């Protein structure tokens, strides 16, 4: 504990204009110097969670609470939110090829973000851009700044993306599957970079579906299933002894590195429910091997052990 | 750079050559297209026909005729009309060109500014009543024939309401050279160019709206918003930048086409002595040298405009600059 709370989502609920709930109940915390891995299957709502923190989902109705550095973000005017975006919190996207504007040089795009938030001259902004690119390990940053996104390799593009995200010194960095579009060696470099950022005191929220990535870079993990956080806790503890049946099943599905090769990898039978067809009770109950009659009532997120949260009837006292 | 420029120029010349051959063949080499009979008039004696044929060189082989005509058109520039004997064709086209240029420049100004305003407004307010109203207006503008609209404008501003305060300023039909009176020039061209621009405003606003909405769905627009850019900046700086391409190429072609005489109907209706009206006269009297001259003039403009658009493309999108292995 001790460290300052940076971001606190409390019962975040997000629905479409027609009333379909996309996120049912997302509660999670990020402290300074923490890296929170948000894991879940495709469509579980991990990206939506990130986007709603950034306020990038107009047209969707959000309720609950998003508290960033002690300020409530929901209900804030867009003008104020805009001042936070890019400066207080920044986001890295999955595919750096499409995330950059293809028709302007990456340097110009990073300059733009700096000049949106700080009153500096073009020349100063460019100097900062070049310094940032250098810090991100881009060789010959001055020339790289003048190049267009399609002229850089995937790894360099993602470094430029991270440089852009860090250009205004955000205290929270949200990375939405930052390594999915990259090959494995580049992936490792980018993850190391994220670790360095975390160590420098910022909070990192890493959205991924890769447990391995979480184990490598994160201090905490939150498991999202069908628009709900079902388990949250320190990475080491969750990996060693997952509490929620869904987390257990997820970890079992990782192929073992040594020992005899299993005949078939364990999978979770069934598929996650669609947002408009979620069960009344526990959302995981239809696929759960421990399902009991009292799963018909949706369990709340409790803290059975210090620092570990889980939403499952198995741990109701 | 120099090599691509040279190859580009070569291509342009080739296209112009092709067009000239094609036009020549249509008017001189298709069966029954013998211009002698038309020049000689109905009921001319065989001797007269034979004399005319020899005089105009129609008895020589076709390639020779073609080369002679091109030589007269481009080199000695003394090609004369078949209808108004002795009238030189090239100076006539060159005299008409500034009129058309003025008209089309004004029209382009109206249609670009109009379509930008309408297109952006309806994209930003998509699915609202404003959007629907603008798109219906655009469709109406698009489907109104320009000659009809021109006649209606003339009827209203020249006769019916000419004496009301609204249209008292409207000058009589015709053209006033810029050098003679800039204000008169602007007044004479205001209504014709607006009439010409109406259908383009409708078309371009629709194109811009759909391109802009597609662009706004791109990931890079999300990035722009994540950077903290405000809506004005996101729409105008990032969104427009992505949706320029098809707008620009469309503009280049339409602009060139109009300069080359495509504003024919407008020029005829408003009695502007431009290239379009010249083409109209040439067609009405089947004056082959004049047709040849106006068509070649138009072809040159379209080809040049195409090259310019390609250059602008490369300027707007760096991916095109690198050539084939872009996207």
Could you please describe the fold and organization of this structure?
The complex is a heterodimer of chains A (317) and B (327). Chain A has 317 residues and is of the alpha/beta class. Chain A has a single domain (5-88, 170-315), classed as Rossmann fold (3-Layer(aba) Sandwich). Helix content of chain A is 32%, strand content 23%. Chain A is built from 11 helices and 12 strands. Chain A has helices spanning 46-54, 78-84, 96-99, 106-117, 122-135, 141-145, 154-166, 184-199, 211-217, 235-240, 245-252, and strands spanning 5-15, 21-31, 35-39, 61-68, 71-72, 89-92, 172-176, 203-208, 220-225, 228-234, 302-305, 308-310. An 8-stranded mixed beta sheet of chain A has the order 6-7-8-3-9-10-12-11, with helices on both faces. Chain A has a 4-stranded antiparallel beta sheet with strand order 2-1-4-5, covered by helices on one side. The mean pLDDT of chain A is 88. Chain B has 327 residues and is mostly helical. Chain B has helices at residues 2-29, 35-40, 46-56, 62-75, 89-124, 129-143, 146-160, 182-216, 219-226, 231-262, 264-269, 275-285, 288-316, 318-321. Chain B starts with a helix and ends in a 6-residue tail after the last helix. Chain B has 2 domains: 2-58; 94-321, MetI-like (MetI-like fold, Orthogonal Bundle). The model of chain B has no long low-confidence stretch (mean pLDDT 86). In chain B, helix 10 runs parallel beside helix 12. At the A-B interface, helix 2 and helix 4 of A face helix 9 and helix 10 of B.
């Amino acid at each position: 504990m001790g460290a300052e709370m940076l971001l606190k989502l409390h019962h975040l609920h997000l629905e479409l204009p027609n009333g379909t709930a996309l996120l049912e109940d997302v509660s999670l915390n990020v402290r300074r110097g923490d890296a929170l891995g948000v894991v879940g299957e495709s469509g579980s709502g991990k990206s939506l969670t990130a986007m709603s923190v950034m306020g990038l989902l107009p047209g969707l109705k959000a309720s609950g609470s998003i508290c960033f550095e002690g300020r409530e973000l929901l209900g804030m005017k867009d003008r104020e939110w805009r001042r936070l975006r890019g400066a207080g919190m920044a986001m890295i996207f999955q595919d750096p090829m499409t995330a950059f504007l293809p028709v302007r040089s990456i340097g110009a795009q990073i300059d733009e973000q700096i000049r949106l938030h700080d009153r500096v001259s073009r020349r100063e902004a460019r100097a900062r851009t070049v310094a940032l690119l250098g810090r991100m390990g881009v060789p010959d940053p001055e020339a790289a700044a003048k190049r267009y996104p399609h002229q850089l390799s995937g790894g360099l593009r993602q470094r430029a993306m991270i440089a852009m995200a860090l250009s205004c010194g955000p205290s929270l960095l949200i990375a939405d599957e930052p390594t999915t579009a990259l090959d494995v060696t580049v992936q490792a470099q980018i993850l190391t970079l994220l670790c360095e950022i975390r160590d420098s005191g910022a909070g990192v929220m890493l959205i991924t579906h890769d447990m391995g990535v979480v184990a490598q870079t994160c201090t905490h993990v939150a498991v999202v299933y069908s628009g709900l956080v079902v388990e949250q806790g320190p990475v080491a503890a969750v990996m060693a002894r997952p509490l929620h049946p869904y987390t257990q099943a997820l970890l079992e599905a990782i192929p073992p590195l040594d020992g005899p090769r299993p005949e078939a990898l364990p999978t979770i039978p069934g598929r996650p429910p669609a947002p408009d067809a979620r069960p009344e009770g526990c959302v995981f109950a239809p696929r759960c091997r421990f399902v009991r009659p009292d799963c018909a009532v949706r369990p709340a997120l409790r803290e059975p052990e210090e620092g570990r949260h889980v939403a499952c009837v198995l741990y109701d006292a | 750079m120099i090599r691509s420029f040279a190859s580009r120029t070569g291509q342009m010349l080739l296209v112009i050559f092709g067009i000239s051959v094609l036009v020549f063949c249509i008017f001189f080499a298709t069966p029954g297209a013998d211009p002698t009979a038309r020049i000689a008039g109905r009921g001319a004696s065989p001797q007269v026909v034979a004399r005319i044929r020899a005089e105009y060189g129609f008895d020589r082989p076709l390639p020779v005729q073609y080369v002679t005509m091109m030589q007269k058109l481009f080199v000695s520039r003394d090609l004369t009309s078949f209808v108004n004997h002795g009238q030189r064709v090239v100076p006539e086209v060159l005299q008409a060109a500034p009129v058309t240029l003025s008209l089309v420049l004004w029209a382009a100004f109206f249609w670009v500014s109009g379509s930008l305003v309408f297109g952006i407004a309806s994209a930003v307010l998509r699915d609202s009543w404003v959007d629907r109203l603008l798109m219906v207006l655009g469709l109406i503008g698009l489907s109104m024939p320009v000659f009809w609209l021109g006649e209606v404008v003339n009827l209203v501003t020249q006769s019916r309401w000419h004496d009301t305060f609204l249209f008292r300023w409207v000058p009589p039909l015709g053209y006033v050279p810029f050098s003679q009176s800039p204000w008169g020039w602007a007044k004479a061209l205001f209504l014709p160019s607006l009439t010409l621009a109406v259908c383009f405003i409708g078309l371009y606003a629709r194109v811009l709206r759909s391109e802009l909405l597609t662009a706004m769905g791109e990931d890079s627009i999300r990035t722009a918003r994540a950077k903290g850019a405000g809506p004005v900046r996101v729409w105008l700086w990032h969104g427009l930048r992505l949706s320029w391409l098809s707008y620009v190429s469309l503009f280049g072609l339409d602009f060139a086409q109009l300069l080359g005489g495509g504003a024919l109907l407008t020029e005829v209706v408003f009695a502007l002595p431009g290239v379009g009206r010249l083409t109209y006269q040439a067609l009405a009297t089947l004056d082959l040298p004049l047709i040849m001259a106006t068509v070649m003039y138009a072809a040159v403009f379209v080809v040049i405009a195409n090259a310019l658009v390609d250059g602008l493309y490369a300027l707007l999108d760096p991916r095109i600059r690198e050539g084939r292995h872009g996207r």
